[in-house]
Amino acid sequence: MSTLEALQEQNLALSAQLRQLVKTESRLYRTQRQLDEQLKRINTLNQFALGASRAADPTQILAQAADTLLQLFPFEQALGLVCAGATAIRPVAARAVPGREGPAAELPPGFELGTGERSALGQPILFTDLPGIARPAPLAPFIAACDAVF
What we know:
Elements: H1 3-54, H2 58-72, E1 77-84, E2 88-96, E3 111-112, H3 117-121, H4 140-149
Antiparallel strand pairs: 1-2, 2-3
Helix pairs in contact: 1-2
């Protein structure tokens, strides 16, 4: 093997190592960005928990929770409801990202929940405008309140 061939072979080996190094660095960079995002979320949740622990009013806590949800997740709107008694419910906090605010100047008054509606509200609900995703039927008053706010 000539010196030139040996150098070409070494050059190919170094090129392969360099490509591998660039791929590894790229993965490390993505991982670092993901870790930074996770730390940001943890910090935001920690700030919410500290603020909520100081607040005595559920309305304040729900408003802070709605703000936090909009910061942490790609939600466009959040609505906080308070249950009063066995069947009464009223919206107390509404938040939206800029451009998705509703025309309502104030929250609608409370309403009474029917049979099964209160237990249905105990489950997380994600509303979407995607075709084929039906809104939960037993929550008509709740959906009407959301529509009135947003």
